[in-house]
Specification:
Strand order of the largest sheet: 8-7-6-9-10-11-12-13-14
CATH class of the largest domain: Alpha Beta
CATH architecture of the largest domain: 3-Layer(aba) Sandwich
Number of domains: 2
Distance between the termini: 166 Å
Order of helices and strands: HHEEHEHEEEEEEHEEEHEE
Structural class: alpha/beta
Largest sheet: 9 strands, mixed
CATH topology of the largest domain: Rossmann fold
């Protein structure tokens, strides 16, 4: 009886647990399947990333292999090919300097052609500007179609002639001496009475001085019947004496505007009417005029 009761009891327990076991089993299976799907997804992603990295590595290797032939091709195109070779030379724009002087300075052994890419253009420009004082600017044009190198020269515009110690020099608008002047020149001549020696490429006066002198000399005949025949500097460039065609001097202060002093001169000459000065007219002091 006890056995039967125990068996029934045990069977009863089994019967009671029988309804729960399938639910637990199904939940475990579901989790196992979900885990398997996640694992498969991660594996697929890892495999894809690995393939992509392998592809990149292979692409990088091919790219590295292509760099060397490309570099060799560029070097051949620049150095081995005649496409960049310029074997003709043309120089123009020079008047004070000669073509032979320019060519000899840049190509001492003669022009035999240059490479348009490797030719040191900056060094050539620096050499021309430092060795030939008449040149103010230079430009290089490279024509690959005609294989021609063209040197375009721009020279200084002469403003005045500076005379000192028995020599005459051409001075540009910046006040720099760039060449010797001839005897018969139509330019304004300024004489340094102290005879201070000068040399080429030396700055002797300021640009303001040149602007003052050129402006006064050009405007004086427009307002009067007087012209300037000679200009001297007794001491410094702050004061200048201009000799007129009527044999008297005009003493000026170059630090003051030239128009103001010119207007004062015109007013005084009108007041003097037919009795012009005999020796000088001094305009250095503002609002005052001294004459003799």
């Amino acid at each position: 009886m006890k056995l039967r009761w125990g068996w029934k009891l045990g069977w009863g327990k089994r019967m009671k647990l029988g309804g729960v076991a399938p639910l637990v089993q199904n939940e475990a299976v579901r989790r196992r399947l979900e885990f398997r799907k996640q694992l498969q997804h991660r594996t697929a992603v890892q495999v894809t990333d690995a393939k992509w990295q392998t592809f990149n590595l292979r692409g990088g290797r091919w790219y590295k292999w292509l760099v060397v032939p490309g570099l060799i091709g560029v070097l051949y195109l620049v150095f081995g090919n005649k496409f960049f070779w310029l074997d003709a030379l043309k120089i123009y724009g020079n008047h004070l300097s000669t073509q032979e002087q320019v060519q000899e300075l840049l190509f001492p052994r003669g022009f035999r052609g240059v490479n348009a890419v490797t030719w040191p253009e900056g060094m050539a420009r620096k050499k021309l500007l430092s060795k030939i004082p008449q040149i103010s600017e230079v430009r290089f044009e490279k024509n690959l179609i005609n294989n021609q190198l063209t040197i375009v020269i721009q020279e200084h515009q002469t403003s005045i002639v500076w005379q000192t110690a028995g020599e005459k020099f051409l001075v540009n608008r910046y006040g720099v001496v760039y060449d010797k002047a001839g005897d018969n020149t139509p330019l304004i001549m300024v004489e340094d009475l102290k005879n201070v020696p000068v040399s080429l490429n030396q700055k002797v006066v300021a640009p303001d001085f040149i602007e003052f002198v050129t402006s006064f000399v050009a405007n004086l005949p427009r307002k009067t019947n007087i012209s300037i025949t000679r200009i001297t500097i007794p001491e410094t460039t702050f004061e200048v004496e201009m000799y007129t065609n009527q044999k008297w001097r005009i003493i000026l202060d170059t630090t003051r505007p030239p128009d103001d002093q010119l207007n004062s001169l015109v007013r005084v000459l009108r007041e003097m009417e037919g009795n012009p000065p005999k020796d000088y007219v001094d305009l250095r002091i503002p609002n005052k005029v001294f004459y003799k």
